C-alpha cells in the first residue's frame, strides 16, 4: 500500500517554523501563561504582517507595559518596549521623525485605554498614521489581575472581588468616536478573521485599531470561574456573535450578554501627515537631524583593558535543607530592631507573591493583633522579573514602613533572589523555592530549600498554590504569624471555592517544613 505520508516532512526534517523569520527565537520560551491568548494574537499578527508585503526593515513595533507589552521583544523587528501608557506618543514620535516607517502599536487594554487613554483618543482625533493592536483581556494581567478600564460590569478581579461596579470602555466606540478610520473587534477564537482585520489595518492609512479579546485564565479567568484557557474560549464560543452592520455604540460588552465582533469602521480621511505635508511640504526630521546617517558607534576598549566576557561561576549544588537554630523572634536581627520584625516575600509576577503578603499581613494584624505595615513592589518586569511584598510586624507603633534589612525572606524566583537576598539581615533566615532558586554558596546566609512549586504541581496538581505551600513552611519554621492566624487569613483571602485546595497546600508546606531534619 502506498505510504500516505510520502513526501510530508517529518518533525525532525522541519528545521524552521514558518514564523521563525519574524520571531526572536533566542528569547523563547516566552513568559506567557498556559492558556493565555497572547500567543494566538501574536501568531495572527505575524501572519498578517508577512502577508502584507510591507518591507520589514521599515516596520517598527512599539509596546507599552503589561503581558502584551512583551510582544515588542519577541518580534524580530525594530521594536520598542516603552513606559506605561506611552506606546502611542512614542510611536507618534517615530512616525513623525521618519514617515517611511510603518509604525505599529501592540499593547494591552490597561496600557492603551487607561494609563494611555488620553494618548489613544488624541492620536485617533489627529488620525495619526498608526496601526494599534489592542489585546483586551479584561484586567491588568501582569500586575496581579486588577480591575481595568475594560473589565465588564460585574466581572470579578483581584481589586473587585465582589464584581466591578463600573461601566467598561467600549474600545471600538471610543476609537470610532475619536476619529479612527478602521476599527474591528474579534476574539482570539476568530483567528482567521482577526488575522484578516490585522492585515487590513496594516495597509489602511490613518489611525487603525484592532481589538483582540483574549483569555487571561491565570487571573481574570480564575476570578470568574473560567480558570483554563479552554473555558474562556468556550465562553467566547457561546457569547461571540458577528454583526457586520453593528454600530460601534451598540457593541458594549456585558458579562452575561453577547460579545459583538466584526468590522465597525472602514473609512478614509486625511491623516495628520497628509495635512502636515500639504502645509509644509515633505518634512523629514530624521534627515534634518541626520539621525539615520550617523555611523554606528564603535565600542573601543580604553588602552590597557581587554573587553572579554566575564566567566560565570559554575552553578552550585542545591543547598541542603537546614532547620532554624533559634526562633525568629529571638534572632539577633529582631533583637537589634527592638522586637520589630521585617519580612520580605519575593518572586515573579503570577506566583501570588502579593497575595501571600496580604495574607501574612492580615494574619498578623487581624488575628495576632499586632501592628503591621505592608508595601508592594512590582514593575513592568513583573511576570518573569522580581516582584516583592514587604512587611513590618511589631508590638509597637510602626513609624516608617520601609523594609531595609528583613530578618525573614522568602524568594521564589532566581531573579527575585538575586535582587533582594543581599538585604537579608545578619542571622536572618531565607526560604527559597528549591527548584527555582540556586542560592549563592558564598553568601553565608541561612537558607532553607522548600520544594513549594514541586509540591503544588505534583502533589496537588495546581502550581498556582505554591505560594500557599510556602506560607505553610514559613509558618512552621518561623513565628512571623501564628499557625491559627495564618490559617484564618488564608481562608479569608483565597477565592471562594478554593478553600480546601489552599488548606491542603498550607498543610503540605507546614508538614514538609516540620519534617526537615
Ligand atoms: Fe496571559 Fe493573563 Fe498570564 Fe498575562 S497573566 S500571560 S494575560 S494569562
Architecture overview:
- By secondary structure, the protein is of the alpha/beta class.
- 33% of the residues lie in helices and 16% in strands.
- Residues 296-323 have low confidence and may be disordered.
- The structure holds iron/sulfur cluster.
- Residues 32-33, 36, 38, 67, 137, 141-142, 216-219, 350 line the site of iron/sulfur cluster.
Kindly report the spatial arrangement of strands forming the biggest sheet.
2-1-3-4-8-7-10-9
> How many beta-strand segments?
16
Overall geometric form: elongated
Radius of gyration: 26 Å
Q: List the total number of helices.
A: 18
Bound molecules: iron/sulfur cluster
First and last CA, distance:
64 Å
Mean pLDDT, all residues: 87
Proportion of residues in β-strands: 15-25%
The biggest sheet, with number of strands, parallel, antiparallel or mixed sense and barrel status, is: 8 strands, mixed
- Uncertain ranges: 296-323
Helix content: 25-40%
What structural class results from the helix and strand content? alpha/beta
Amino acid at each position: 500500500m502506498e505510504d500516505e505520508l510520502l513526501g510530508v516532512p517529518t518533525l525532525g526534517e522541519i528545521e524552521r517554523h514558518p514564523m521563525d523569520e519574524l520571531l526572536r527565537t533566542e528569547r523563547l520560551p516566552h513568559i506567557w501563561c498556559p492558556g493565555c491568548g497572547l500567543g494566538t494574537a501574536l501568531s495572527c499578527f505575524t501572519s498578517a504582517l508577512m502577508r502584507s508585503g510591507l518591507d520589514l526593515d521599515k516596520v517598527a513595533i512599539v509596546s507599552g507595559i503589561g503581558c502584551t507589552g512583551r510582544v515588542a521583544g519577541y518580534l524580530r523587528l525594530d521594536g520598542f518596549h516603552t513606559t506605561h501608557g506611552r506606546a502611542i506618543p512614542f510611536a507618534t514620535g517615530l512616525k513623525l521623525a521618519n514617515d517611511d516607517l510603518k509604525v505599529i502599536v501592540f499593547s494591552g487594554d490597561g496600557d492603551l485605554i487607561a494609563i494611555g487613554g488620553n494618548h489613544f483618543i488624541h492620536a485617533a482625533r489627529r488620525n495619526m498614521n498608526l496601526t494599534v493592536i489592542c489585546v483586551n483581556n479584561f484586567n491588568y494581567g501582569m500586575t496581579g489581575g486588577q480591575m481595568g478600564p475594560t473589565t465588564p460590569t460585574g466581572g470579578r478581579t483581584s481589586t473587585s472581588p465582589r464584581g466591578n461596579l463600573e461601566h467598561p470602555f467600549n474600545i471600538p466606540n471610543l476609537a470610532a468616536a475619536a476619529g479612527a478610520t478602521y476599527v474591528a473587534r474579534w476574539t482570539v477564537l476568530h483567528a482567521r478573521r482577526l488575522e484578516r482585520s490585522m492585515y487590513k489595518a496594516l495597509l489602511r492609512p490613518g489611525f487603525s485599531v484592532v481589538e483582540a479579546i483574549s483569555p487571561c485564565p491565570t487571573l481574570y479567568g480564575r476570578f470568574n470561574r473560567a480558570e483554563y484557557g479552554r473555558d474562556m474560549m468556550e465562553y467566547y464560543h457561546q457569547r461571540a456573535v458577528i454583526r457586520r452592520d453593528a454600530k460601534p455604540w451598540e457593541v458594549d460588552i456585558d458579562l452575561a450578554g453577547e460579545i459583538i465582533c466584526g468590522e465597525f469602521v472602514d473609512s478614509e480621511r486625511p491623516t495628520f501627515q497628509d495635512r502636515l505635508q500639504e502645509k509644509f511640504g515633505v518634512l523629514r526630521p530624521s534627515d534634518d537631524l541626520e539621525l539615520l546617517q550617523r555611523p554606528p558607534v564603535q565600542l573601543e576598549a580604553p588602552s590597557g583593558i581587554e573587553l572579554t566576557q566575564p566567566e560565570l561561576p559554575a552553578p552550585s549544588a542545591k543547598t541542603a535543607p537546614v532547620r532554624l537554630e533559634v526562633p525568629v523572634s529571638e534572632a539577633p536581627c529582631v533583637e537589634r530592631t527592638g522586637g520589630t520584625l521585617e519580612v520580605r516575600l519575593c518572586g515573579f509576577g503570577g506566583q501570588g507573591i502579593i497575595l501571600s503578603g496580604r495574607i501574612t499581613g492580615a494574619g498578623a494584624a487581624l488575628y495576632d493583633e499586632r501592628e503591621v505595615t505592608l508595601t508592594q513592589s512590582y514593575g513592568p518586569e513583573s511576570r518573569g522579573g522580581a516582584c516583592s511584598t514587604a512587611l513590618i510586624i511589631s508590638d509597637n507603633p510602626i513609624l516608617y514602613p520601609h523594609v531595609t534589612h528583613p530578618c525573614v525572606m522568602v524568594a521564589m524566583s532566581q531573579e527575585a533572589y538575586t535582587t533582594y537576598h543581599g538585604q537579608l539581615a545578619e542571622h536572618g533566615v531565607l526560604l527559597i523555592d528549591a527548584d527555582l532558586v540556586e542560592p549563592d554558596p558564598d553568601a553565608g546566609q541561612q537558607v532553607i530549600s522548600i520544594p513549594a512549586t514541586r509540591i503544588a504541581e505534583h502533589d496537588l496538581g495546581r502550581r498556582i498554590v505554591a505560594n500557599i505551600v510556602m506560607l505553610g513552611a514559613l509558618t512552621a519554621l518561623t513565628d512571623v504569624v501564628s499557625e491559627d492566624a495564618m490559617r484564618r487569613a488564608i481562608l479569608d483571602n483565597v477565592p471562594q471555592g478554593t478553600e480546601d485546595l489552599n488548606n491542603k497546600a498550607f498543610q503540605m508546606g507546614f508538614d514538609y517544613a516540620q519534617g526537615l531534619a
